[in-house]
């Protein structure tokens, strides 16, 4: 039979209210009585609910996670990595979807404090000043996953977005393409839009393709937004033979638009994505893309937070994990026709 709070009180020779105070306000109980109650709890293997255990031991073994869009397939690998690391380190996850809404994000930070999480992970979104100030106010340990904030000394784990984008565009260039466009995220509202745009420009500059610099359209975060952005891009620049999409979902939206216009991929237009989500290999044509180690980013973010919670600091403040170019079917060699004099 499971021990009850009454059994604990009897074993420790204290009142039930004293046991309750040890669980809810331990500083109000004398050290001698508090020790007796804690020994009674251990001896009887009394298991109060999780909230009460958190009050006793001043830890809940719960980690909060904030992600911007739970419907985005990118986050499946990230959360799976977090979950596996959390299980290994005896933590539970509390996952919250922010929808990139500032007030909702701030409310979640307050909720984490009220629910006594040990720390939290802020994933794949810009760390606005309002967020940082609210997070600092509650003195909760937190780390950044698949994002970064160089202006603050916050532990983070992600990839080098600028270099990854550079390698994606360079792949198109060495495949013979000279008219290359980009479908990107808004530069002012996303953490990865700016560095991926800079990687795009650097590859063009290195190859002397400066005329391609303005061949950019912007989409929000979804497949349908990318479809519309592709329509705008090709209306302005029908001469394009290749597109670098800043996410796999954007690449799929671009390819769908091209198909609807009767254009073949990669026969007439090559498209390269970014992320290597699970669907990238299932899509037709299979996507050439930049692989982000999403599982590893998620796993490492929990390890990093655990280190911060238990030791008060981390060995590596800003960790960059390796990315990889995956060449599949959506990109091909482009040969410009030779015109007779």
Explained architecture:
One of its GO terms (molecular function) is DNA-binding transcription factor activity. This is LacI family DNA-binding transcriptional regulator. It is a single chain. This protein is an alpha/beta fold and 341 residues long. The chain folds into 3 domains: 33 residues; 126 residues, Response regulator (Rossmann fold, 3-Layer(aba) Sandwich), CATH 3.40.50.2300; 132 residues, Rossmann fold, CATH 3.40.50. It is built from 12 helices and 12 strands. The strands form 2 sheets. Strands 2-1-3-4-5-11 form a 6-stranded parallel β-sheet, sandwiched between helices. Strand 6, helix 9 and strand 7 form a beta-alpha-beta unit. Helix 5 packs parallel to helix 12 and helix 10 crosses helix 11. The longest helix is centred in the C-terminal third of the chain and has 18 residues. It is elongated and about 95 Å long. The N and C termini lie far apart (96 Å). The model has no long low-confidence stretch (mean pLDDT 92).
């Amino acid at each position: 039979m499971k021990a009850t709070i009454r059994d604990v009180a009897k074993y420790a020779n204290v009142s039930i209210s004293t046991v309750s105070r040890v669980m809810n306000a331990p500083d109000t109980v004398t050290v001698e009585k508090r020790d007796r109650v804690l020994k009674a709890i251990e001896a009887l293997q009394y298991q109060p609910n999780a909230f009460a255990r958190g009050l006793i031991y001043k830890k809940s073994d719960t980690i909060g996670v904030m992600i911007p869009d739970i419907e985005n397939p990118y986050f499946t690998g990230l959360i799976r990595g977090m979950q596996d690391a959390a299980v290994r380190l005896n933590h539970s996850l509390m996952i919250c979807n922010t929808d990139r809404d500032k007030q909702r994000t701030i409310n979640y930070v307050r909720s984490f404090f009220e629910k006594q999480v040990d720390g939290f992970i802020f994933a794949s979104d810009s760390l606005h000043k309002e967020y940082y100030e609210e997070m600092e106010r509650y003195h909760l340990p937190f780390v950044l996953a698949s994002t970064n904030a160089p202006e603050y000394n916050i532990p983070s784990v992600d990839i080098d977005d600028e270099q990854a984008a550079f390698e994606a565009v360079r792949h198109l260039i060495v495949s013979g393409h000279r008219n290359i466009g980009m479908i990107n995220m808004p530069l002012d509202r996303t953490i990865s839009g700016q560095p991926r745009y800079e990687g795009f420009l650097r590859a063009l500059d290195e190859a002397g393709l400066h005329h391609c610099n303005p061949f950019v359209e912007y989409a929000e975060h979804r497949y349908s937004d990318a479809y519309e952005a592709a329509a705008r891009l090709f209306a302005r620049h029908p001469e394009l033979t290749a597109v670098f999409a800043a996410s796999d979902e954007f690449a799929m939206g671009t390819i769908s638009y091209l198909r609807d216009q009767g254009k073949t991929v990669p026969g007439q237009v090559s498209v390269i994505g970014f992320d290597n989500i699970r669907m990238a290999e299932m899509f037709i044509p299979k996507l050439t893309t930049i692989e982000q180690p999403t599982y590893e980013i998620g796993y490492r973010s929990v390890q990093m937070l655990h280190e911060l919670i238990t030791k008060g600091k981390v060995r590596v403040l800003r960790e960059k994990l390796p990315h990889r170019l995956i060449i599949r079917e959506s990109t091909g060699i482009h040969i410009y026709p030779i015109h007779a004099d």
